[in-house]
Write a structure and sequence with these properties.
single chain, 331 residues, Rossmann fold, 2 domains, 4-stranded parallel β-sheet, 12 helices, 42% helix
Length: 331
């Protein structure tokens, strides 16, 4: 299998499964459907941030960091995996979390990822309503330096050119699995938010010369803004990894009509999509990312975007623990 010549630590126990979704394919009378199970990365209930953190933690250790600092929403999957990664390598961790407009309630503030953060030994810094999350985090970084710590700041979602290498590697892994199973993968659909997953997948497909469509379903912003985030990551990655930037940019494929009122705000279609996959394939999605991405996938199938002969995969980026923060939606 093709690999990256970039240092990383080990946070995943093995490659994640790539499986057919036979029941869903039959129910929809659709293209042949598959799922890449990055909810099974194994770190504190798993998720896509584990791949990114393998590269980010390696960089932190190289720089002699003593504490990881990162930001996210109250129910951040990335934050949960960051504190888990810190624990694995005996680092401290500071989480700076902000309230997401349109969400709330006791479950949202105390259960799900927040509960796991606390169990793993961190008390998140909750950003006051009148403060900017990034400014608050950078001020905390300076405070930690003054206290003698060596902080390593990880941007939202771990989505910088280093973290995105985790999804270059995922593209290599997935295409090797397709080769072993004699599958020509026509499209890969996934949730796109902080853009590191999509940028990494595009870079990986470009390095492999694969013609698989990488379709990002937006969970927080319109297509134009999402495209800018992806390009901002692809530019330095193209220099470091040696792929053609303009060719990679042409691969950017975004669907932005499924995230509703905003990031983390539930939609009726998301609830139904989560139930659909649970009842057909016994796979649990999450309310913020994969639930909305599955809405996009189901809509593309219903609109005959793929032929019956094509092979279409869904990338499960994890986060099902977040269901407990939104449990009233599923009663």
């Amino acid at each position: 299998m093709k690999t990256l010549d970039v240092k990383k630590v080990a946070l995943m126990s093995n490659t994640t499964p790539f499986e057919p979704m036979l029941n869903l394919s039959k129910a929809l009378n659709s293209a042949k459907l598959f799922i890449k199970r990055d909810d099974c990365t194994g770190l504190a209930t798993g998720g896509n941030k584990t791949r990114k953190l393998e590269y980010l933690v390696a960089d932190a250790l190289k720089k002699n960091a003593t504490i990881l600092v990162t930001i996210g929403g109250i129910q951040s999957n990335h934050a949960r995996q960051t504190v888990a990664a810190a624990n694995k390598f005996n680092l401290k961790c500071a989480l700076v979390l902000e309230k997401v407009p349109g969400t709330g309630g006791d479950d949202y503030l105390q259960s799900g990822n927040m509960l796991l953060d606390t169990i793993m030994g961190t008390e998140p810094h909750i950003v006051p309503d009148d403060k900017d999350c990034l400014e608050y985090a950078l001020a905390l970084v300076e405070q930690l330096k003054a206290q003698g710590e060596v902080p390593y700041f990880i941007t939202v979602g771990g989505s910088d050119p280093i973290g995105a290498c985790g999804y270059v590697e995922c593209a290599f892994e997935l295409m090797e699995q397709c080769k072993q199973q004699q599958i020509k993968l026509d499209a890969l659909i996934h949730a796109t938010g902080s853009a590191g997953t999509q940028a990494g997948l595009i870079a990986g497909m470009e390095l492999l010369g694969a013609d698989t469509r990488v379709i990002g379903v937006c969970v927080s912003k319109p297509e134009t803004a999402q495209r800018e985030l992806i390009i901002d990551l692809l530019e330095p990655m193209s220099e470091a990894l040696g792929f053609d930037l303009q060719s990679a940019i042409k691969r950017i494929d975004i669907k932005d009509q499924y995230y509703g009122e905003g990031y983390g705000i539930p939609t009726t279609a998301m609830v139904e999509a989560v139930k659909t996959l649970a009842r057909h394939e016994a796979i649990l999605l999450d309310p913020v990312y994969t639930g909305k991405a599955m809405v996009g996938m189901l809509d593309m199938i219903n609109n005959n975007e793929f032929s019956a002969e094509q092979n279409v995969a869904f990338l499960h980026t994890g986060g099902s623990v977040g269901l407990f923060a939104y449990k009233d939606l599923f009663k």
